[in-house]
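Q: My collaborator sent me two sequences in one message, no labels, and asked for predicted structures for both. Can we handle them in order? The first one she listed is below.
A: Yes, handling them in the order given. First sequence, followed by its structure tokens:
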Amino acid sequence: MQRLSWCLVAILFLSLPLASRAQLGMSRPRTGQQMLDGIIVKVDNQIILRSDVEGIVAQEQARAQGKPLPPDLRCKVLQSLVLNKLMLARADIDSVTVTDSRVNSELDRRMNYFVQQVGSEKKLEELYNKPVRVLKEDLRSQVRDQLVQQEMQDKISGKVTVTPREVKEYFDKIPKDSLPYYSTEVEVGQIVIPAQVNDKAKQAAISQLNDLRGRIQAGESFEELAKKYSQDPGSGAQGGYLGYFKKGELVPEYEAASRKLEPGQLSPVVESQFGFHLIQLIERKGDQYSTRHILLKPTTGAADASEAALKLTRLRKQILSDSISFAKAAKDNSTDKGTSGNGGLLANRQDGGSKLPLDKLDPAIFFTIDTMKVGHITPPLAYRTDDGKDAMRILYLKSNTPPHQANLLDDYQKISQAALNEKKSKALEEWYEKNRNTVYLEVAPDYAQCKVLAAGTE
């Protein structure tokens, strides 16, 4: 079997947004240019479609921009997909699951990302000609599978580490004429403070929900009012319906209020990190309960952001006067969980390090730091968080590394990550060899040359 070096990134390929599922059924290619879609691999009750492979291949061809790709690309893609399906099949056998709460959280995160990319929820729905609730349901099983795969992958290779000696040995094996050449890289830090919602906006939301509560008690439909007024993009279009959850799967304030209710009863207005809720308990079933809600999110204004800007201005002054480090200020004050624990530094998703290719930066950051000197910190800047909330932030240019050929001194993090990926790939390959005979595996004849069933072939 060929080395499964692609297995570590296969889950990322599988997360292509809103990918359509083609018809099922094993099928051979048509004569001519067009090929029928269909099942090409079965792993127990898991399947791989021809379109799954071809979609990833097409994406890689687009990324290559005319550069040659490996002749066995399709087989490498198929092998990584088979590994993922094997992990799902074994997860069923080993009872590895993920909670509905985690799935819903990931769906919400993706929807927020998609909305930000296209500009608005309405534009997203127009783009795919579907309401957001349908888009989420289209993605639900895909997201659940990806999260289960991540759980299995973590069980298999999550504890794998590399020592400095192993990193050096890995680097020394790379031919000198094959060492990569890195473009300009920077280290950028940020401290994020959200704009505070003022009391007037909060009271307006509470008053509106109390008014809706009275209308429901007077006989109006909760579902219809939720469709009209709720600002939850996932449940609003479904009449506020959230589904079934167990203890600990929803935010504490929401869960505590829900568990006090009898079926059909309405809660008072409840505040959580997401905004203000009006909740109705639908039913309890064992240790699960189902609810519907109307969510209102009070908006912030210029005056609300000014407090965040003032606090950041004071922090910037303290950092520049050396009375506090940027890392300490970020840890103690930034609300961005992704960076606050890392000294405020943005992470490179490719290798986990803090050095970012200048040409791959978010344009908002690139045009801000393009003329900055190392050590400089911007004044407070308006910012929109990943979950769509108004905030302010300051940016810090920690380092600026000129273009260079890879070396252990400047690029230890990247080389260490590459060495770790290779070691994890070996662990996954060993797991595959050990477990591939524990499930039913069938491959379509026209993909037999990929040898996903063969042991130990290179």
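Q: And the one she listed second?
A: Here it is, processed independently of the first:
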Amino acid sequence: MNRFYGNLLTFGHFVADFYQGALPALLPFLVSDKHFSYAAAAFLIFSANVSSSIIQPLFGICSDKISVPWTLPLGVLLAGISFGMSGVVDNYWVMAVFIALSGVGIASFHPEGVKLANTFAGENKATGVSRFAAGGNIGFAVSPIITTEVLLLFGLKGTIILSLPALIMCIIFLIQLPKLTKNKAQVTVKREVQAKNTADEWKPFSRLTATLTCRAMIFFGLNAFLPLYWIHVLNQSKRGGSIALSTLIIVGAVGTLIAGRMADKFGNRKVIMTGFLTLIPLLFVFINVRNVILATLLLIPIGLSLYAPYSPMVVLGQKYLPNHMGLASGVTLGLAVTMGGVISPVLGWISDNYGIHTALSSLTILPIIAVFLTLTLTIPKVDLNRDSVNKVKFNVTRSGN
């Protein structure tokens, strides 16, 4: 594993996903300061996710055909500057456009980023990709706390201050881009001969995408409405709501790292199934708790269970489409994940009409669906071919001895 470039990509992912995590922390301020309805506020998340879901697979396709490392600095910069402008403008629809552009920037970073993370990871793909994913998760986690503090201090126009990390990261990427591109070309990726001759498995990949979408819906539902739930149901402060969201995601980042190592040891499908199975009872208990301390403690196992399937599913997607890894990355990190954001307006409508508790309660059916979908996931042919070749090599070695 090339640790320097792996760490560079991880930190870049931290900055890119910082702006994805900042948006939910912005919603309570929009609701209180600009008097947006829950549905109007949730539509902003929807606009960011729709733009991402369209553009991310396209960048993935480009990544399969040509090397596009320039999307790393460009994506980070567009994500940060656009989010920074969103709090400065007064017009709702102009704000929605800036937030959508921020989503495009985040989307353009992911396909090439995770593909390079896979390249520099060496043999332990799940571990390498989990580190990359954890960088984004941590950025997502600390973002609500930092965003809330900045907005409490400077008001909505403080979003422009939050664009500074993107500018700094863009400069770092531009400085390192020539060396990054050169080292990528020099890295010897040890791909088995049979992997090159393995056909893409589109049917299991489509089922994996459906599974990812279920997980993304749970994620975006909690991400968008957990701070509001903390404020309006558990009667806590805005700061308390952002801390609750950050707790969930920080724990999730730890879970992502653990899951990557477990997936390399025990297999991707087992880790995915374990995560969804444990999430089912946890969500049922969580929505029936009114004690803020107990609710906070429950965020720990919920975060571990919710994030455990994430990096194994990304790696599994790359194995299902060994000839189109960029597209697989674009879909698993982009389309499937951001399509989970389409649930935000639905939850916003439920919240406006039936309350936030009812909206979050509706999420409990999704991990059950995900379990049944996980049962349909097959072992990738790339792994089967690799195991067959290793068995032949082992038998030849024994015969030679």
